[in-house]
UniProtKB/TrEMBL annotation:
Spans traversing the lipid bilayer: 60-80, 89-108, 114-135, 147-171, 177-197, 209-229, 235-253, 273-293, 308-328, 340-360, 366-383, 404-424, 436-454
Domain of life the protein comes from: Bacteria
Topology within the bilayer: Multi-pass membrane protein
Subcellular location per the Swiss-Prot or TrEMBL entry: Membrane
The organism's taxonomic lineage, starting at the top: Bacteria, Pseudomonadati, Pseudomonadota, Betaproteobacteria, Burkholderiales
Provenance organism: Pandoraea aquatica
InterPro entries: MFS (IPR011701), MFS_dom (IPR020846), MFS_trans_sf (IPR036259)
GO cellular component: membrane
Name of this protein: MFS transporter
């Protein structure tokens, strides 16, 4: 049975409670699918390299290809969602991701696997970019924080479950099952989404092909350049790629300025609160990436913890977000989101500082409760901050706001990975502690920027 087109006025107030209980799990299942796959692929890289007789440097492209195409596709797909309707783009993403997962599971060579991962990255961007806009259509405006908190909860669950799921699958079977597991999940998500999601209306706008190409070139040059930052002997190449990327970015901005509804959300970035929220998000995700990459090295090299113990000690961070996200969502619908996210970043900075300066005789419990503080702080930042971005944009620009949320997270994580690689290159084994100190500083700076939003909102009011 085909789902009828929901009137725009109805969507402006969201769906009724009974319809939401069916539509929301359909949306979040697609999010769980994409995030689970992203978090389990890294674990299998050594096994994939051995099975497909490939060198480690080439095998890393199983991860890099996904991340690169994902970043390049976010803003064009956000614009496409506004034109064609969010439901249609989301369904294409779920269907394509499921089909590409089959391609990954059957891959006879590394080239085949990387090509299938490119398709996964494109379709994963379809799902991740569109989900916040879909949730905004489904929930009434006064429940915006709750909608974003469910998204954060789903991401935290899939991130926390990823390594454990990967470990179980690799213990019991072949690495190909890491991708084959997506097939039943994807089919269920596709069927439920097709059946229960309302048809969202599209908007009259032209597809900006030159803008999409400039966007892709900008991100490809900058991301690849940042990836070379930490490689000895490649600093000159990295600098050239980053500079070329920035030049193309300037051309992209000039091209987008003349458009009424730009693919690059310049109209949203002119709103001080949204601009500051995006910068805060970049800083916070940089800090998170620095900590996620640096902490395992610190635990294993400085505190002599095993790989298994390291995984268990880091787990409280994403796990506590599962419980914090719903609470933060409800509170952000009642209290000022800017102050809440600033408070969260303050707690996050304290947690990071306590990890950066761990005592030499730190116990497992002493490490674990510090991880809990980081998770609490990040959870109280993430949901209110994303609520500001989504609910602060005009409803007809929900796709652009979704893209802004996603690209801020992607840029922050990419910059964080580049900085931690550079720190290891500069400081060797001390790079792990330097990464934790840098993460602390970034979280504190993000909190300061977050407080500026309170002043910006007061001026706007």
């Amino acid at each position: 049975m085909t789902q009828p087109m929901a009137p725009a006025a109805t969507l402006a107030e969201g769906l009724c409670a009974s319809a939401r209980r069916i539509a929301v799990p359909s949306i979040l299942l697609g999010t769980f699918l994409g995030n689970l796959d992203a978090s389990i692929a890294n674990v299998a890289l050594p096994t994939i390299a051995r099975d497909l007789v490939a060198d480690p440097a080439s095998t890393v492209w199983v991860v890099n290809a996904y991340q690169l195409i994902f970043a390049m596709a976010v803003l064009p797909l956000a614009a496409l969602g506004e034109k064609l309707g969010y439901r249609r783009v989301f369904l294409c993403g779920v269907a394509g991701f499921t089909l590409a997962s089959l391609g990954c599971a059957l891959a006879p060579s590394l080239s085949w696997l990387v090509a299938a991962r490119v398709v996964q990255g494109l379709c994963g961007a379809c799902m991740s970019t569109i989900v916040p806009a879909l949730l905004r259509m489904v929930f009434p405006p006064h429940m915006g924080g709750r909608a974003i908190s469910l998204l954060a909860l789903t991401v935290a669950l899939s991130t926390a479950a990823g390594p454990s799921v990967a470990a179980v699958i690799l213990t019991l079977g072949d690495w190909r099952w890491l991708f084959a597991i997506n097939l039943p999940i994807g089919l269920v998500a596709l069927g439920a989404s097709y059946r229960f999601l309302p048809r969202t209306p599209g908007a009259e706008r032209r597809i900006d092909v030159p803008g999409a190409l400039l966007n892709a070139a900008t991100l490809a040059l900058i991301i690849i350049g940042l990836g070379h930052v930490g490689e000895a002997g490649h600093h000159g190449v990295a600098a050239l790629q980053i500079v070329l990327g920035l030049v193309v970015a300037v051309v992209l901005v000039r091209h987008q300025r003349s458009r009424q509804t730009p693919m690059l959300p310049l109209d949203l970035m002119r709103v001080p609160v949204l601009a500051l929220s995006s910068l805060t998000s970049v800083a916070c995700y940089m800090a998170q990436t620095l900590a996620y990459v640096g902490m395992p090295f610190l635990l294993q090299h400085t505190f002599a913890r095993s790989e298994a113990a390291t995984g268990l000690l880091i787990t409280p961070w994403p796990l506590v977000i599962v419980f914090i996200a719903p609470l933060a969502g409800r509170l952000s619908d009642r209290f000022d989101s800017a102050r809440m996210s600033a408070l969260g970043l303050g707690v996050f900075a304290v947690g990071l500082a306590s990890l950066a300066w761990l005592p030499a005789d730190a116990s497992d419990w002493g490490i674990a409760w510090r991880m809990v503080i980081c998770g609490v702080g990040f959870g109280f930042f993430q949901t209110p901050n994303n609520r500001i971005i989504m609910m602060g944009a005009p409803r007809e620009r929900s796709g652009a706001a979704s893209g802004l949320m996603t690209i801020a997270r992607t840029v922050g994580m990419t910059l964080g990975a580049a900085v931690v690689a550079l720190l290891f290159d500069l400081y060797g084994d001390d790079g792990a502690r330097a990464a934790m100190v840098s993460a602390t500083i970034l979280a504190a700076l993000g909190g300061s920027v977050s407080l500026l939003r309170v002043r910006a909102k007061a001026r706007a009011g």
